[in-house]
Amino acid sequence: MASRSYGACVLCQRVAVVKMMCRGMSAAAQPEAQVDFLKGEPHRKHPGVTNLKTLRLPEHLQTAAQSIIHGAEVTRLPERTHKLTNFLWSRKRAVDDRTVRQKAVSLEKDLWEKAMKKKGDVDGQAVEDHIRKKVFSELRRTTYHWTPMKYNEELGVMYMAARLAGGYAAVRRALNEIKKRHPSFAPQSLLDFGSGLGTVAWASHSCWSDSLKEMVCVDSSGPMNILAERLLKGDDERAEPHIKQVYFRQFLPVSPKVQFDLVVAAFTLSELPNAKEREEVAFSLWRKTSSYLVLVENGTKEGHQMLMEARDTLLNKREKTLYDSRPASVFAPCPHELMCPKLAVEAVTPCNFQQTYLPLPLPGHHDCQTEKFSYLILSRTEPAEAGPDGVDWARLIAPVLRRTRHVHCHACCADGRLQHTVVTARKHSRDVYRCARNSDWGDQLPIIQRGEEDVQSDSE
């Protein structure tokens, strides 16, 4: 019996040694880039993780908002807030005149062809009048009628109840991309175009309160600027603002040479009447940018397409006058500067992301909500400095599906293609696999080599 026990122990020791040698060989076989990209961080906090946990409004902001909303005594507030939320989410871009004219010509041509096929005498003038009326009627029925939002105090309070927490969550998540990937960035000045209730100032303050010395909030609506100031003062006119050096304006600074370290426009492009004005605003904001330009919109097809218009404008079109010759490069979320692959497929879906947050504690609001948004960050730094540690990273564009010993990842890659990859420890290394399990929609992953069995292009 003793000899058998001794033999069993020796066998167990040999098995243990073999396992250790295999582990060592497996680690040695991993490419150097896959070992080094963690930079000493645990897998759950790898350099590509930019998602945030459930966000809540800063305490001073939430208290002030509740005070203003309760004091305003808006009738049927929950119902009207819900209606306003749905209206803002479903808002589309204004249809430009050229598109309307092309549609009118096409309709008129079709109606004339149908009229000419009818037999018998035709009164040309009567047919022409009938077709004209039919064209106008059809255009009125099928053309989206865009109207600008004009905020008074009551509508501003409704907007506060509907969008303050969700807007803050989206902006805070977008700014976290810069804070995580460029930790040494310490902006001293901020320009917020279309500032509304001042959520960008609050979100920026939560990221860089130690360095920010000047925040300029520009909004054409006087009532919204007043509400934003009341929020900063805790709804007390005699109190000092919670965030200092915040200045409200109704127009952009005149001098084209005045620049800000950080320029943000959140849910603003959708408030502009046409593509020409959006292009002019994109150029104006870029001229004001010395480091980063951040654009945020609803996570709808319209919101995503407006951001891609701005991206194309600033990457590919030339300004008439250049005050800062440093070119634009895409910092996030795109891992490339090619055409967005989501726009190349026939069934266009938006490139969007989500952030969970706690809404204002008002009637009809749930405990936790999710803000779905699209964003774009452009930088004046060199493209090589934009990626974490010079490693090529892919952006996760859908929820990560975790299964037994494998993970499904849908990502936009540096070559401009969409990829669905099944990540396993055996095929992609233990580090990449564990990073994939700890990542989620919106995070980045180190570029994954393609294999015939586990990768397929989503754009095909």
Notes on the protein architecture:
It is a single chain. The protein has 460 residues and is of the alpha/beta class. The protein has three domains: 59-89 and 148-386, Rossmann fold; 97-117 and 126-142; 391-460. Helices cover 43% and strands 17% of the residues. The protein has 15 helices and 14 strands. It has helices spanning 2-29, 32-36, 59-72, 77-89, 97-117, 124-142, 153-181, 199-208, 222-232, 275-287, 301-316, 341-344, 383-386, 425-428, 430-437, and strands at 189-193, 214-218, 246-249, 260-266, 289-298, 329-332, 353-357, 369-379, 393-396, 401-403, 406-412, 418-423, 444-446, 455-457. Helix 5 (97-117) packs across helix 6 (124-142). The termini are far apart. Residues 1-6, 17-35, 384-388 and 449-455 have low confidence and may be disordered.
Domain count: the total is 3
Q: What is the CATH topology classification name of the largest domain?
A: Rossmann fold
**Strands, total number:** 14
Average of pLDDT: 85
Biggest sheet details: 8 strands, mixed
| C-alpha termini separation | 66 Å
In summary, what is this structure?
The protein is α/β, with parallel strands linked by helices and 460 residues long. Helix content is 43%, strand content 17%.
What layout of secondary structure does this protein have?
Blueprint: H1 2-29, H2 32-36, H3 59-72, H4 77-89, H5 97-117, H6 124-142, H7 153-181, E1 189-193, H8 199-208, E2 214-218, H9 222-232, E3 246-249, E4 260-266, H10 275-287, E5 289-298, H11 301-316, E6 329-332, H12 341-344, E7 353-357, E8 369-379, H13 383-386, E9 393-396, E10 401-403, E11 406-412, E12 418-423, H14 425-428, H15 430-437, E13 444-446, E14 455-457
Parallel strand pairs: 1-2, 1-4, 2-3, 4-5
Antiparallel strand pairs: 5-8, 6-8, 7-8, 9-11, 9-13, 10-11, 11-12, 12-14
Helix pairs in contact: 3-7, 3-9, 4-7, 5-6, 7-8, 10-11
